Amino acid sequence: MSRVVTFGEIMMRLATPGFARFQQAMPGSVNVTFAGAEASIAASLAYLGADAAFVTALPDHAIADACIADLRSIGVETKHILRTTEGRLGIYFLEHGANQRGGNVIYDREGAAVALTPAAAYDWTAIFTGCEWFVISGITPAISRNAAEVALFAVQEAERRGIKVVCDMNYRTKLWRWEPSLSARDLATRTMKDLLRHVTVFVGGISDAIAMLGVDGAGDLHTVAKQITAQFPNLTHAAFTQRDGSSAAVQNFSGALYEKATDVLHTAPTFSITQIIDRLGAGDAFTAGLLFSILQGSSPAETIAFATAAGCLAHSIEGDFNYSTRAEIEALMQGDGGGRVSR
């Protein structure tokens, strides 16, 4: 199978137990895992059996060692992760939502190693050897000016080498603070438009795509997808997650994939999720499922169905990584969503 490389920040995730609020849980115990969009995508791909590598910069200490060991335990290649004496391991704190109370994330990632490490420090020739697909998200360029420059350099280098690029928009309102003269939204729009010129497959939520890319959201999704792919000629596909719900615990989740060559929008069935264990990482699972299915040579209709089922199952798993097998995803695609015990 073709090699996939993802690049971005990985952090330590500190989540309050159950549905406790920060003030209830601290001082006390929290649940520690590792998380980050591109790392989550690599983890999901590797768990599905793909040849996936993750690239980042991490400080040279024991906690970063544990982070790398966690990725390796899933099958992610980590040999091109840089170890640095400058910078730190970022952290984010998570309070799960419940009923009508939404979840809350607090970031503590200023000065992370990957935010400080320049593009020249990475061995891109070695990183891209044997690579067919490169994955980046809108989170990495949001954390610092340097990280944005590295992300742009990386996608340009991938394009120069004939490597296809996937970008998950992943807009985060609490980030994008590195140019104070611009609002977070304006900075994100300017930066991501430059990056998307080198991207093959766009992935994103509909509202963020409309707001950030300056497309007319008055039309249907087919029209929106056509506008996005027309704006960025390198794009061959645009994929969207679709979500709505009445509370933090009840959500409807679906997806759509637009194929530019045929001008066809393929949609997946909507899953009604009534018991969400953890919704963070569901979009990453969707992106990983999309790319994994593309690697299998699946049709667009099969690809969006697989991606959507992967994203659905991720809601049932604690942590950002999607520990769902290919067989489980395919069973859900075929209608086996009753939650029966496997005996």
Short description:
The protein has 343 residues and is of the alpha/beta class.
Topology diagram in text:
Layout: E1 3-7, E2 11-15, H1 22-25, E3 31-35, H2 37-48, E4 51-55, E5 57-59, H3 62-74, E6 82-84, E7 91-95, E8 104-108, H4 113-116, H5 124-128, E9 131-137, H6 145-160, E10 164-168, H7 184-196, E11 201-205, H8 206-213, H9 221-231, E12 237-245, E13 251-259, E14 264-267, E15 271-273, H10 282-295, H11 300-314, H12 326-333
Parallel strand pairs: 1-4, 1-9, 2-7, 5-6, 9-10, 10-11, 11-12
Antiparallel strand pairs: 2-3, 7-8, 12-13, 13-14, 13-15
Helix pairs in contact: 2-10, 10-11, 11-12
Topology-level CATH name: UDP-N-acetylmuramoyl-L-alanine:D-glutamate ligase
Helical stretch count?
12
Structural class: alpha/beta
Q: Which architecture per CATH?
A: 3-Layer(aba) Sandwich
CATH class placement? Alpha Beta
Q: Terminal Cα separation, in Å?
A: 32 Å
Q: Strand fraction band? A: 15-25%
How many individual β-strands? Answer: 15
Number of domains: 1
Name of the CATH superfamily = Ribokinase
Question: What average pLDDT do the residues reach?
Answer: 93
Sheet with most strands: 9 strands, mixed
Ranges where pLDDT stays below 50 over 5 or more residues in a row are none
- Radius of gyration, in angstroms, nearest whole number: 19 Å
Query: How would you spell out the order of helices and strands?
Result: EEHEHEEHEEEHHEHEHEHHEEEEHHH
Inertia-based shape: globular
Helix content: 25-40%
Structure description:
The mean pLDDT is 93. Helix content is 36%, strand content 23%. The longest helix has 16 residues, at 145-160. The protein has helices at residues 22-25, 37-48, 62-74, 113-116, 124-128, 145-160, 184-196, 206-213, 221-231, 282-295, 300-314, 326-333; strands at 3-7, 11-15, 31-35, 51-55, 57-59, 82-84, 91-95, 104-108, 131-137, 164-168, 201-205, 237-245, 251-259, 264-267, 271-273. It is of the alpha/beta class. The strands form 3 sheets. Strands 1, 4, 9, 10, 11, 12, 13, 14 and 15 form a 9-stranded mixed sheet that branches. Belongs to the carbohydrate kinase PfkB family. InterPro entries: Carb_kinase_PfkB-like, PfkB_dom, Ribokinase-like. Keywords: Kinase, Transferase.
